[in-house]
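Q: How do we represent a protein-ligand complex in a form that can be generated cell by cell?
A: Start from the inputs.
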Amino acid sequence: MKVVLGVSGGIAAYKACELLRLFTESGHEVRVVPTREALKFVGAPTWAALSGNPVSAEVWDDVHEVPHVRIGKGADLVVVAPATADVLARAAHGLAGDLLTNTLLTATCPVVFAPAMHTEMWQHPATRANVATLRERGAVVIDPAVGRLTGADTGPGRLPDPAEIFQVCLRVLRGRPLDLAGRRIVVSAGGTREAIDPVRFIGNRSSGLQGYALARTAVARGAEVTLVAANVTLPDPAGAKIVRVESTADLRDAVLEASAGADAVVMAAAVADFRPATRQGSKIKKTDGEPEPIRLAKNPDILAELGERRRAAGAARAGAEGSGVIVGFAAETDDVLANGQAKLARKGCDLLVVNQVGEGLAFGTPDNAATVLVAGGEPVEVPFGPKEDLADAVWDLVAARLS
Ligand code: CTP
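Then emit the C-alpha cells for the protein with cytidine-5'-triphosphate bound:
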C-alpha cells in the first residue's frame, strides 16, 4: 500500500522515524512529507534514507512531476504524526501553503492525525473546534496519550506510541471500523500464581498471548483499555493501561476496581481455582520421611462474581456496580461444547469463548481456534488462525451487543 507520512514540527518528530520503519518493514511504500518546521527537528536525509524516497516540504521541487497533486491522489492512506496544533488548524481550514497541506487537500483516501502538543494547546477551544471539524469530515484523530511532555510538565498531549498509531493505521487501511471508540474495556490476561512458600507457587501454563491480543485489538478499535496482567512476560501492548498482579486475590481486586462502569470485561486470564490454605513464611525444607501434604482452599470465582454483581445491580448495561458486556474464556480438554454451555449458564456471562487445550493446542502458541457461545444466540465458530483474529471476532460480538 502507498502511505504518505506527514510529519509536522513538534519534538515528537523523531518518533515518526519508528512509525516509518513499522510501515516499511511490513512492506508498505512510504513517502514522507514533512513541514518546514519538522525539518528543524529531524532532517530530510533521515527521512529519505529510511523511506528510500525523495523528501521535500515544498511544492517547488520536482515541479514537472506535479507533486502537490500526485502524492495525495496516489496515496492509500495519509497519516500525520506528530500533528501539531498548527497543522490541525491549517488542515481544518483548507490552507495549502506547503506540500503537506496540498497533499491533505488532494488526498481522497483515509486520513489519520496523531496530535502531539502541550496540554493547553490541545484543550484550547480553537484546537477542539479544528479536531471536531476534521472528525466530522471523516478523518481519524487519535487522542494524544497522557504523560511527560517536552518540559517538566505532564498531561494529555504526548504522541501515542508509534506501534499504537501503526495499529490504528493498519485498521483504517483494512477498512475496519473504530467501533469501540469511547468504550471503556477491561481485559485480564495470563495465569495467576498461588504462593506455597516464598519461592514456590501453584500456577498454570497460560502465556497471556490471547489476552494481550484482545487488548491490542481493542486499542486499535478505539477503546480505552485496562489490561490486568497476571505473570505475563510479553512486551506491553501500546495504548493500554497495564495493572500487574500475581495471585487470584490481586487479580480479583484489580478487575473489580477497573470494571466499575466499564462497557465490557473480558476474563481471558487462567485463574487458579485453589490456593494453598496456608502460605509458609519460610522456604519449606526437605526432610527425611514423607512430605507434608499441601492443603488447598477455594479461590473466589471472579467471572461468576461479575455476573452476580450485574444481576444484583439489575443493570443490563454499564452501571456504578455492574459491568457491561461480560465475556469469559473456557479451556476444556473434553466434552468441549457441552462443558462450555453449562459454564456460560453457570457464570452468567454474555459470551464464552471455548477452546480445546492440551497437546500443544492454544497455550503459548500464536494461533488458536474457538467457538464463541452466545447467551440467547447461536454459537459462532472462529477458524484456526492468529489470536488477533479470534480477538477481533470477540470484539465484533461485543460491539454488536453494545450498540
Ligand atoms: N474464572 C474466574 N475465577 C476463577 C476461575 C475462573 O474468573 N476462580 C474465569 C476465567 O477467567 C475464565 C472462566 O472463568 O474466563 C472459565 O475458567 P475455567 O477455569 O474454565 O472455569 P472453572 O470455573 O474453573 O471451571 P472448571 O471446573 O472447568 O475448572
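The mean pLDDT is 92. The chain is about 35% helix and 25% strand.
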